[in-house]
């Protein structure tokens, strides 16, 4: 009996390894792409395989899971923005549940809170954010709250938003600001600060990464080619410093895009579109300071988005203009990257494990 159980367990583990982890790819559909794609990823070898179309939809440029991964949410980055809910199926296909308006143009980011009760969408052209609740079947309600960042002086370009417990942070590239909201007793969010961190003029905060304890935040600046680091002091954040993402010898144009902390938070990664690199920083986990240790070529053009796999052993980059995903191994001790290989995917702009 023991031998039979062992054989069953061994076969189950083998099947899991062969099936791998599903990677979903958000794309732009103005070329060959038809929507959201999926690849299988082997967490032992770092190999991607079996490219398939998971759902036909227009410009799903950013994706987010529900906490239990039973549902996936995708923006439709169009002039009249949408956000759609999908059910994840066995084999990786996606089944559309419903689609809602985002009340803004060119929605470029969506995220879900850790409780799985709310989603927030950032509208780049609308200059606002839209908040949603979920129904029991994973579908989105109509927007429960729409918050406009535009003022009479500056045009807003909300670019990303993330929940942290009862708080909400929003990077606004147009307003050159990081907005901070708190949830009130009705479930809506109230503005606490429209300028949580001081940025250089025209820095262009785009995406950001919070440490797990919420005590440090790192914001990547699209226009300035830099990362702004700040530490939480009481209810506010105090600036640590601004760090260039570029190699000292690079003098060409550049637009930063994405940013992620390593799983152990000892390293920080940011993408450069133009230099076409991933900037690697060693992070002081005590005081939050950064030291740049590598600028690694992405082996492609225009790294819009990248991600670390669930094991933290691999980093994958979506190169929009060269239509490929590049895979790197991550040195656990140094944080540095080593290029492994790449695969062709049409207009990849978002990667989701």
TrEMBL record:
What residue ranges are annotated as transmembrane? none
Q: Which InterPro entries match?
A: Cycloisomerase_2, Haem_d1_sf, Lactonase_7-beta_prop, WD40/YVTN_repeat-like_dom_sf
Recite the UniProt keywords alphabetically.
Carbohydrate metabolism, Glucose metabolism
Superkingdom of origin:
Bacteria
Supply one GO molecular-function term. 6-phosphogluconolactonase activity
A Pfam family annotated for this UniProt entry = Lactonase
Q: Could you give a single Gene Ontology term from the biological process aspect?
A: glucose metabolic process
- Gene3D superfamilies per UniProt: YVTN repeat-like/Quinoprotein amine dehydrogenase
Is Ubl conjugation one of the keywords UniProt gives this record? no
- Output the SUPFAM superfamilies linked to this UniProt entry: C-terminal (heme d1) domain of cytochrome cd1-nitrite reductase (SSF51004)
Sequence similarity = Belongs to the cycloisomerase 2 family.
Q: What is this protein called?
A: 6-phosphogluconolactonase
